[in-house]
């Protein structure tokens, strides 16, 4: 059974930084895209950033220039460096990944990690 586990969330003041990590476990043959999403209270889940196996990165408009997504292919991990955090970045952050197992890719999600930015 594949699992994704996020870590690194917490409480930070506006202007501060946090680095989120997402570790995978289980039988994994390969991983395609890896992503970070977030969901604030009362709002829909939104895509924050994605990274392809070749390293192509895409960002949501609200985080571009402040957040950086990266991955470690050897460890099957994805990271999100968040700088210049704002109160509106407060949300539960989820990682997901398209993972190849027995014959097909499936998308798996982590449980989420809370990020709270105080003003």
Summarize this structure briefly.
With 119 residues, this protein is mostly beta strands.
* Poorly predicted runs: none
Tell me about the biggest sheet? 7 strands, mixed
DSSP E strands, number: 11
Shape: elongated
Spatial extent as radius of gyration: 14 Å
Please bin the fraction of helical residues. Answer: under 10%
User: By helix and strand content, what is the structural category?
Assistant: mainly beta
Strand content: over 45%
Average pLDDT over all residues: 96
**Strand-and-helix sequence, N→C?**
EEEEEEEEEEE
End-to-end distance, in Å? 40 Å
Number of helices: 0
Question: In words, what does this structure look like?
Answer:
This protein starts with a strand and ends with a strand. The strands form 2 sheets. Strands 2, 4, 5, 6, 9, 10 and 11 form a 7-stranded mixed sheet that branches. The protein has a 4-stranded antiparallel sheet with strand order 1-3-8-7, with no helix packed on it. The chain is mostly beta strands. The relative contact order is 0.33. Strand 5 and strand 6 form a beta hairpin. The mean pLDDT is 96. Helices cover 0% and strands 58% of the residues.
